[in-house]
């Protein structure tokens, strides 16, 4: 979305950081300069792990909460995966959060010497540029890419030490490909679930779920939802479930903590969309869809403009930026968004940015992140912890994983999901626009929270415990 010559000039000044910021592929929620598990070892801290079979410390034995406590320097907690054969099965290969997160895990495992094989269950019939690019990035990093069907896929599943199914939809691969071999593979399957929508609760997707070694879910809210929904709607029981919060990569943190890099990125992005450095930007960084709530955000933003005008508040010009647009798809929803902007005559204050692989430049250029996911919210909401790393306050819906990340009134402000949240969000936009010190303080508190619990090594230790337990279960079943 920018001028190539400008990027070249910037990169010459600070090429190492900008390569990380602008061209690093693997970024959590959706777009990727996210938690790229690219390092071969965790060299800063390790964790002592406490297993607590309670939700939020309450008497609920539905998931395993894994806590990290910083200690001395030790080797990578995933070193035990060296030489292990791991099969990763994704329902698709796209720029959506689930597949990209699984790719990060693939690189993390490759970094400690595991043999990693990738299968995509559903591929476009015609050549797809995104699939082609992502597959070649995996191949370049030593990840083997196999066809979803055929004897080689079956042999790999039978031989693997660990099979990770990614998302509920990936369950269709089991019967379609393994057929009568399914019972032999289930004891070594870890099912990584990210979905929060009701239409994923279909028997054809998850009928084998009770028989796998374990389920791994990104938030307590989602784990509880899956427990209740599978029991009430499908009459099946969840396997042992592990809650593993995600973490920001060292690469993203380096950019977030480099003031010069952030200033350069901020200036360039703002110039490219026509926003002055003194103006305030409230942004949603998510794929454009009704579930992500961009329509309600724009209504709130318009309402906040009216409030500022009616109360004659002295604030810098405020802008709304929606990163994740895709006019090539010509969706009805995106057309609705653009028509609303034209109807309200706020096109000089609202900016649409095409979906991108790099979120760091936008996090460096905005002032407040709006996480407006609707209904049950985000399973986790990776962009939230990334924004907090950039010392941005978060205005989020009081739903899903957002409530496990944002401390209301301290690192951001929460509002209800749905239409009833439009006015509260508008009020919160005005609050942060008019109170500079509060906005900055929330950003600093969010950064501190990230440093305490949402870094790469925190997640590495949490996921290492899960993999150890699943491998032990698989070994016990085999003997």
Kindly describe this structure.
The chain is α/β, with parallel strands linked by helices. It has helices at 4-13, 15-23, 97-111, 129-140, 151-159, 172-178, 182-185, 203-206, 220-234, 250-256, 259-273, 294-310, 332-343, 360-365, 382-389, 402-405, 422-434, 436-453, 456-478, and strands at 50-52, 64-67, 85-90, 115-120, 144-146, 162-166, 189-193, 214-217, 241-243, 280-285, 318-325, 350-354, 368-371, 394-397, 412-415. It has a 9-stranded mixed β-sheet, sandwiched between helices. Strand 4 (115-120), helix 4 and strand 5 (144-146) form a beta-alpha-beta unit.
What are the key terms here?
nine-stranded mixed β-sheet; 479 residues; six-stranded parallel β-sheet; alpha/beta; 15% strand; elongated; 19 helices
Write the layout of secondary structure elements.
Layout: H1 4-13, H2 15-23, E1 50-52, E2 64-67, E3 85-90, H3 97-111, E4 115-120, H4 129-140, E5 144-146, H5 151-159, E6 162-166, H6 172-178, H7 182-185, E7 189-193, H8 203-206, E8 214-217, H9 220-234, E9 241-243, H10 250-256, H11 259-273, E10 280-285, H12 294-310, E11 318-325, H13 332-343, E12 350-354, H14 360-365, E13 368-371, H15 382-389, E14 394-397, H16 402-405, E15 412-415, H17 422-434, H18 436-453, H19 456-478
Parallel strand pairs: 2-9, 3-4, 3-6, 4-5, 6-7, 7-8, 8-9, 10-11, 10-13, 11-12, 13-14, 14-15
Antiparallel strand pairs: 1-2
């Amino acid at each position: 979305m920018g001028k190539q010559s400008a990027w070249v000039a910037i990169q010459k000044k600070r090429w190492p950081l900008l390569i990380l910021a602008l061209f690093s592929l693997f970024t959590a929620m959706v777009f990727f300069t996210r938690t790229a598990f690219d390092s071969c070892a965790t060299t800063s801290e390790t964790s002592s792990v406490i297993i607590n079979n309670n939700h939020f410390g309450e008497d609920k034995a539905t998931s395993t909460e894994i806590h990290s406590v910083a200690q001395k320097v030790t080797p990578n907690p995933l070193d035990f995966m060296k030489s292990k054969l791991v099969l990763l099965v994704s329902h698709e290969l796209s720029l959506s959060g689930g597949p990209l997160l699984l790719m990060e895990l693939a690189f993390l495992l490759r970094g400690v010497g595991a043999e990693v094989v990738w299968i995509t269950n559903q591929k476009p019939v015609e050549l797809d540029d995104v699939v082609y690019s992502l597959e070649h990035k995996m191949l370049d990093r030593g990840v083997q890419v196999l066809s979803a069907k055929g004897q080689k896929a079956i042999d790999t599943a039978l031989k693997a030490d660990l099979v990770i199914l990614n998302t509920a939809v990936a369950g269709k691969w089991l019967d379609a490909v393994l057929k009568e071999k399914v019972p032999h593979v289930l004891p070594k399957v870890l099912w990584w679930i990210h979905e929060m929508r009701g239409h994923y609760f279909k028997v054809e997707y998850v009928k084998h779920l009770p028989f796998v070694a374990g389920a791994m879910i990104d938030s307590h809210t989602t784990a509880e939802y899956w427990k209740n929904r599978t029991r009430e709607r499908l009459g099946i029981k969840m396997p042992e479930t592990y809650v593993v919060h995600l973490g920001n990569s060292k690469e993203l943190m380096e950019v977030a903590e480099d003031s010069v890099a952030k200033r350069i990125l901020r200036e360039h992005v703002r110039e490219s969309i026509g926003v002055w450095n003194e103006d305030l930007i409230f942004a949603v960084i998510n794929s454009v869809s009704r579930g992500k709530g961009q329509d309600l955000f724009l209504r709130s933003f318009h309402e906040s403009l009216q409030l500022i005008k009616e109360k004659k508040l002295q604030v810098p010009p405020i802008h709304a930026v929606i990163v994740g647009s895709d006019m090539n798809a010509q969706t009805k929803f995106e057309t609705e968004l653009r028509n609303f902007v034209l109807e309200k005559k706020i096109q000089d204050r609202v900016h649409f940015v095409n979906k991108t692989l790099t979120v760091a430049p936008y996090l460096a250029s905005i002032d407040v992140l709006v996480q407006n996911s609707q209904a049950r919210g985000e399973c986790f909401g990776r962009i939230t912890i990334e924004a907090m790393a950039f010392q941005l306050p978060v205005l989020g819906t009081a739903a899903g994983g957002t409530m496990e990340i944002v401390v209301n009134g301290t690192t951001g402000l929460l509002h209800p999901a749905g239409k009833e949240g439009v006015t509260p969000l508008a009020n919160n936009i005005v609050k942060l626009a008019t109170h500079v010190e509060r906005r900055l303080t929330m950003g600093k508190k969010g950064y501190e929270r990230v440093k305490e619990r949402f870094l790469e090594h925190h997640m590495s230790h949490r996921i290492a415990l899960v993999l150890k337990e699943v491998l032990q279960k698989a070994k016990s079943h085999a003997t």
